[in-house]
Amino acid sequence: MTATVSVESSDDPLASGVRFPDGFVWGAATASYQIEGAANEDGRGPSIWDTFSREPGRVHAGHTGDVACDHYHRYVEDVALMADLGLASYRYSIAWPRIQPDGTGPVNTRGLDFYDRLTDELIGKGIDPVVTLYHWDLPQSLQDRGGWTARETAEAFAEYAQIMHARLGDRVRTWTTLNEPWCSAYLGYASGVHAPGVRDAASAFKAVHHLLLGHGLAARALREAGAQSVSITLNPSAVFPLDENKPGDVDAARIVDGLSNRIFLDPLLRGRYPDDMREHMARFTDLSFIREGDEAIINAPIDVLGINFYTPSYVSAKPGQPASPDAPGTEGIAFRKPVGPITDIGWQIEPAALTRLLDRIHRDYPGTPMMITENGAAYPDGPAEDGQIHDTNRIEYFDGHLRACLDAISHGVDLRGYFAWSLMDNFEWAEGYAKRFGIVHVDYTTQRRVPKDSARWYQEVIRRNGLTDQGRIGE
């Protein structure tokens, strides 16, 4: 795929604009627990999110993913929507508890059958399936045995990867091991705002390692089974010092960057944890859980690095500031509150930060192909009097971040695709159903789907493989 960006010109103002490289992949993404529902059907076992969402005060208004978008029963309708939008690819995740209800041992063939049907439906509509093996819904029985703090979970994950490849490997080309291990480790085991709700720094760092080890073991198993493309998706943070001229702020950014980025990227792409992060982890726990040879396993070759991006972080030195709950050891570091335009979930909108992040990864880890595997915004949109959803602010968000991608490509970044988050409104983890990220509106009472204006805008972006000079197509 060429890494150039072409500029169109025409007497028609709507025909002028910029194009993405030939072969650029356009898709949308979802996650199993957020959309599938059917939580107690066809042999599915409980996940940590089933347990967590039933604990009082954990999830907004006591919402659960028991029904969600009922995708388990409505996948044919949903795939038809994808085809109508012109998606070339669909990134979905497998619910591990559907495949192995206890996390290990016997395989639930009815769970495999569902993903068989979904995969075949996608291929039948000309949509390339991109599978994520783990998007946070760990089987509860594995959590009862230690979850990601235990080496057993990493080993079980590799077995599960083999099971899935044996069933879908003849049709699925791209396999993503983990989605956002930062969230699984820090939100799940440090701040406890996500399942399993643990609040212990030592557990968080053990989870970091065993998630990465699980990736390495699964990547090796997939490769040995003949997988065509193996990847992992991170949510690297675009971390900046509030004042680049203040050494304290620069050092604060180094620490936060280490916890958010280098602790994952370095072992994955360089084969070793950064020395400063080893020292940082050792403040909370001995590192005996990192065994000889583990880093070499984690360093298993990948074909593409998935990047999920939503918002930047600005940090400064502030003596006496307590540590952030999801960043153990950040005492004396302040995270600036979002400024300027923000989304409904309170995240600062700054597309240029995405360009800077992609440039940085390209510079520090040269030769790494990337895809944007999630990018999007939550807004409180609903049907207008005409029954349609006019989400202009979401279109502006997408447009700005796609232009940021084009900027990075023009700098030489090997960026190969973009997946909008999310295909449809869904269960947004601890926010329940209160936040809507979808380009398709879902009425949770009737399960009626209505494509928003952003869906039609994205449809045209895909058709053109590019953007107009005006930004919002069709105005």
From TrEMBL:
<protein>
    <recommendedName>
        <fullName>Beta-glucosidase</fullName>
        <ecNumber>3.2.1.21</ecNumber>
    </recommendedName>
</protein>
<dbReference type="InterPro" id="IPR017736">
    <property type="entry name" value="Glyco_hydro_1_beta-glucosidase"/>
</dbReference>
<feature type="binding site">
    <location>
        <position position="179"/>
    </location>
    <ligand>
        <name>substrate</name>
    </ligand>
</feature>
<dbReference type="InterPro" id="IPR017853">
    <property type="entry name" value="GH"/>
</dbReference>
<feature type="binding site">
    <location>
        <position position="34"/>
    </location>
    <ligand>
        <name>substrate</name>
    </ligand>
</feature>
<feature type="active site" description="Proton donor">
    <location>
        <position position="180"/>
    </location>
</feature>
<dbReference type="GO" id="GO:0008422">
    <property type="term" value="F:beta-glucosidase activity"/>
</dbReference>
<feature type="binding site">
    <location>
        <position position="310"/>
    </location>
    <ligand>
        <name>substrate</name>
    </ligand>
</feature>
<keyword id="KW-0378">Hydrolase</keyword>
<comment type="similarity">
    <text>Belongs to the glycosyl hydrolase 1 family.</text>
</comment>
<feature type="binding site">
    <location>
        <position position="421"/>
    </location>
    <ligand>
        <name>substrate</name>
    </ligand>
</feature>
<keyword id="KW-0624">Polysaccharide degradation</keyword>
<keyword id="KW-0136">Cellulose degradation</keyword>
<dbReference type="Pfam" id="PF00232">
    <property type="entry name" value="Glyco_hydro_1"/>
</dbReference>
<dbReference type="InterPro" id="IPR001360">
    <property type="entry name" value="Glyco_hydro_1"/>
</dbReference>
<feature type="active site" description="Nucleophile">
    <location>
        <position position="374"/>
    </location>
</feature>
<feature type="binding site">
    <location>
        <position position="135"/>
    </location>
    <ligand>
        <name>substrate</name>
    </ligand>
</feature>
<keyword id="KW-0326">Glycosidase</keyword>
<dbReference type="GO" id="GO:0005829">
    <property type="term" value="C:cytosol"/>
</dbReference>
<dbReference type="GO" id="GO:0030245">
    <property type="term" value="P:cellulose catabolic process"/>
</dbReference>
<dbReference type="InterPro" id="IPR033132">
    <property type="entry name" value="GH_1_N_CS"/>
</dbReference>
<keyword id="KW-0119">Carbohydrate metabolism</keyword>
<feature type="binding site">
    <location>
        <begin position="428"/>
        <end position="429"/>
    </location>
    <ligand>
        <name>substrate</name>
    </ligand>
</feature>
